[in-house]
Structures are given as C-alpha cells and as structure tokens.
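Shift notes (night). Ran Peptidase A1 domain-containing protein while the centrifuge was going.
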Amino acid sequence: MAAAWLRAVFLAAVAASAAEALGLDVHHRYSATVREWAGHRAPPRGTPGYYAALAGHDGLRRRSLASAAGGGEVAFADGNDTYRLNDFGFLHYAVVALGTPNVTFLVALDTGSDLFWVPCDCIKCAPLVSPTYGNLKFDVYSPQKSSTSRKVPCSSNLCDGQSACQSASNSCPYNIEYLSDNTSSSGVLVEDLLYLITEYGQPKVVTASITFGCGQVQTGSFLGSAAPNGLLGLGMDSKSVPSLLASQGVAANSFSMCFGEDGHGRINFGDTGSSDQQETPLNIYKQNPYYNISITGAMVGSKSINAKFSAIVDSGTSFTALSDPMYTEITSSFNSQVQDKPTQLDSSLPFEFCYTISPKGSINPPNISLIAKGGSLFPVNNPIITITDTASNPLGYCLAMTKSEGVNLIGENFMSGLKIVFDRERKVLGWKNFDCYSVDNSSNLPVSPNTSAVPPKPSMGPSSYTPEATKGASPNGTQVNVLQPSESSSLKLHFNTNIFIATALMFSAIL
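Came back to this:
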C-alpha cells in the first residue's frame, strides 16, 4: 500500500516539475500527502499540539547548532518531493535513486553536514521496517548489486580517511561523528549514478556520478528514527551533493529553496537567482560551515530597531529563534503596536506573545522586516501563526518567535513566501517574494549531455487519492499548470521490488 501512495506522489512530482522549471516539491511533515503516505496520526494543523510538536523539534535542533557554533537547475529524478515526517528526527526528507538498477532511499536533508550516505552492506543499521516509519519499508544499497558502482580509493582527493589506509588502492574509509550524542555513520566511500531531472523544452533525465558513503555501521539516533534510510548533506564542503554536481558541470554551485504558506514548497539545484532579488554576503566560517548572514537591524511596524548580530538561515528550524537583545526589542515593539488583547492560549505553546482574534475575525499585526548587511530588506511575510481547536475554530494568534540562548536561527516561518537562493559560487544569500507554485526562468546553466527522455507515467496507482502537487490552486489562488511527462523513455525507477516510473526530486526545508 505504501508503494502505491509513493507512486502517486512521485507521478504528481514529475508533472509539477515538467511544468514548473524543475520545481522540487517540499511537503510539511504534517501535510495531507505525508499523512496518507506514511500513515501518521499527526495533530491537526493549527492546534496547540501541532505547534508544540514543531517547537519541540526546534529545541533539539537549536541545541545541536549551538554546540557547534564557536548547467541548468536539476532535481533528483525520483519523486520530486521533499517530506517532513512526524516520527523522524530531521525536519525534511527526500527520495533519491542510486545505482543500476536503481534503488530508492528516503534520506534526511541536512544543511549542517556534507557527506551523503545510505545504509549499505549493513553490519549495524536501523531496521528496514518499524512502527515509527508508518507504512514505509526501506531498502539498502549494495555495491555488488549495481553494475555502475565503483570503489573510491584512498588516493582520491575526496578521501579524508587516508591515515587509516594501508595502501592508496584500498577503499577509502569514512567515519563521521554528528552533534547528537554518540551518533555516527561509518563505512567506505563509493561512486555510483544519481538520477536527476532537468528541462529544456522536454524534461530530461540526467545521471551524475556521485561519491557517497556506503554506511555499514550507524550508532546513536541513526539506529532509531533520526535518519533510518540515509542522510544527504547540503553543506559547503567539496563532498556535499551541490558541490559534486557543480564539479561535474551538472549544475551551478547554488541551490534555492521556497516555502509556501501552506508548508508546500520547492528546492532547485543550480538556481543562481535573478537580477531582481535582494542579497547579502554569506559569512564563511570554516569551523562552523552553516549558511550564516549578518543582520544590522529590523523594522517592526512604524518603528526601526538598530542591532547587529549574525544568524543561521536554517530550513530545518520551524520557528525563528533570536537571542537578546534582538528578541526582546522585536517582540516588545510588536507587542506595543498590536491592537488585539493579549491572551494565554495553551501552556504547551512556546510563544510568549499571543492575542485574541477580534469579533470580526480580522488579524492585522504590524509588519516585520529584517535589515541585512548591505541594507537589503528581508521581508517577513508570515510572522504569526493562528491557533485553532481540533474543529479548526480560531482561538487566537501568536508571534511565532522564541527566545534563544547564544545562537540565532532564521527559521522556515520567516522564509515563507520567499525564494531563498544559497549561491555558494558568489558566497551570497539571495531572496525575493515568490509564489512557490510558479515558474522562474531567470536562471540558466549548462547541464551535462548525459540525458535521456523522461520516463512514462506508471500504469498503476491509487484511484481515490489526489496528491497535493496535482491540485489546481496554490494558497494564493494561482493556478498550477500540470504537464504530463513524456511517453517515450526506457528508464525505469524502482521502489523496493515494485517498479514505478517517476522523475524529479529533492531537499529539508530544510532546512
């Protein structure tokens, strides 16, 4: 049953990608798609339990980051969706296809790490089936079963474990310790094909030889539900997937993320942005390789706030978290300009400033914008959340910010309605207001010629389920034009033992 849901989701992703310039669907962990697909009993959207669950994840994420502080656009060719899953430890997940014949993996997306690894020839890995996975059944990678798999020798410039090698021709070992206590992945590096999709008139499948970890031994939270089927790093190191794609000329060394107000969004590899976007320099710290920018102030309603601090732009955090004095200055200014009555909605909510909704049902909070280094305004389109009961009746609203100790995080809620461009070539962060369901044809890059036509749609799939990507209207009413994929292709992508055909993916939030 799970495979049937996946086929439906992947087909919708292919159609959306074909129509919308390689758009990669991003789904909130509590979206209707993921609930149906993974079988989760998530709290209803908008309820205190819903926001408390997201804030709980943010707390863990914030502590981890704090402990560490001190071509054309292409998409994965296996179901262009990125997911947020309730019971897993990361915020965004994506499905990737590797090898020949290809095997699919549901990998966690992490902007705070670099290496891409999947469970492989397992000595100690997470189980393939678990109640915490819902209806999902995972697979493992085996180099012996892929005709295109190649070992990565110790002599490779991507090998960091040369000190453990007996000879230059040995397979390169890897061992990565993560911020969570006693959590690691180790094994050997391998090289194999990763399937992606691009569009020039007709969508094309692109294969790229990617170096990744054959994860034989996992420890800590990787043996549970944090990343049971692998992890894909989006960091700045040469081993990350964006860097590897750029080094092969498959895509520029840049990617974009876009989050709609309904939690649906996109990620595009190779998107270098456009001339009409706002920009600010990225702060490059080798010891803390996150996407860090400098903020010089803020505008809250009619009031200007002067304060200088750096912040990590992190799609893996749901709600923006700032430390004092900036947190107090912004929230106090917001509170002084709100005309609605303050209220305490629910003790499980982490938000300090909540208000009743007027009898007319209107909400008119003061606008918030951050001022980035260089003077560009970073508009916060959706700084509040509306709290409802289980019957979707509005109870009030809150300023969706939390106080942090030591680390400042610009979370997904402050990115809502924006396209964020992580331009690693120019070392800038770009942004502009953007409908995540529309097409942006302003970025063009060379793509490797190793392409083929997009596979045809699968002949099977659930008849009673309409994936979100195929529904006609975006949150603001803009119509989404869905183009069916080409019927002339021989490439077939597989999920476990069930053959399905799909094209377009990735990448959790992220952030």
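The chain has two domains: 2-41+71-272+440-500, 278-432. Residues 2-41+71-272+440-500 form a domain with the Cathepsin D, subunit A; domain 1 fold (CATH 2.40.70.10).
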